[in-house]
Amino acid sequence: MAAPSSQVRRFADLDALSGAAADDLIRIAHAAIAARGSCHIALSGGSTPRRLFGLLVQRGAAALPWDHVELWWGDERTVPPDHADSNYRMTREALLEPLGIAASHVHRIAAETDPAAAAAAYERELVAALGAPPVFDLVLLGMGPDGHTASLFPDSPALDETARWVVANPVTSPLVHGHTTRITLTAPAINAARHVRFLVAGADKAASLAAVLDGPPDPRRYPSQLVATRGADVAWLVDTAAAASLGGAS
């Protein structure tokens, strides 16, 4: 098994998964704020976290002391912040604006600029705030049907990165409709986090999820395997459809 110490938690559907993720986020944030005065979270893009954000909005601004929460991103597409594909825009519309989170607590990747310069600038901001390596309290991740996570795609250059925390990653994949560049946290940055939560839903993820969790190590093909449990609390929150090809209950 590629990730024997990772915890796999199964849920009937996306709503149940998202509710558990909201509970985890709130619990982790309260503990971080009590221990260190603030909580730093790296958010994920895509459709699965949108449901989580909606549930956090439903619970209201009083569910967390948001003025002690700092929001970052695990990756970003190289588009302007108002573009339909922007991870920032999705989060702004689904979470930031409904809860009235102050802009001073939101750390956007300026991906509309030169990708390499944007990655370097984001890395500097992270290190200034969180040290080297930057230690997030929580990193939220998804997983694509090809096994990628954040913007660590199969066979992409960022998979070999060991010294940088943020890079501009050239990607070739049918999922990005050919060729593009994405800005992403590296595996060393993700692995430095105190807590990591993968949110994985949908039947199109079932084969890759089984390969990542039950198959032999092959991180160039399944980059999600790069996220190890090196001191972090790593858990996979998966729905029934995504878990269909997994082995026995974890």
Describe the structure using short key phrases:
6-stranded parallel sheet, 250 residues, disordered N terminus, alpha/beta
What class, by secondary structure content? alpha/beta
Specify the helix fraction band: 25-40%
Order of helices and strands: EHEHEEHHEEEHEHE
CATH topology: Rossmann fold
**Low-confidence residue ranges:** 1-5
Per DSSP, the total helix count is 6
Largest sheet: 6 strands, parallel
CATH hierarchy class name: Alpha Beta
Strand order across the largest sheet: 1-9-8-5-2-3
Identify the overall geometry: globular
Strand content: 15-25%
Oligomeric state of shown chains:
single chain
The total count of strands amounts to 9
In brief:
With 250 residues, the protein is an alpha/beta fold. It has six helices and nine strands, in the order βαβαββααβββαβαβ. α2 links the parallel β2 and β3 (69-73).
Task: Write a structural description.
- By secondary structure, the chain is of the alpha/beta class.
- The protein has one domain (14-59, 66-192, 224-235): 3-Layer(aba) Sandwich (Rossmann fold), CATH 3.40.50.1360.
- 32% of the residues lie in helices and 20% in strands.
- It contains six helices and nine strands; from the N terminus they run βαβαββααβββαβαβ.
- It has helices at residues 14-36, 47-59, 87-99, 115-130, 187-191, 206-214, and strands spanning 7-11, 39-43, 69-73, 75-77, 138-141, 166-173, 178-185, 195-200, 233-239.
- It has a six-stranded parallel sheet with strand order 1-9-8-5-2-3, covered by helices on one side. A three-stranded antiparallel sheet has the order 4-7-6.
- Helix 1 crosses helix 2 (47-59) and helix 2 (47-59) runs parallel beside helix 3.
- The chain starts with 6 loop residues before the first strand and ends in an 11-residue tail after the last strand.
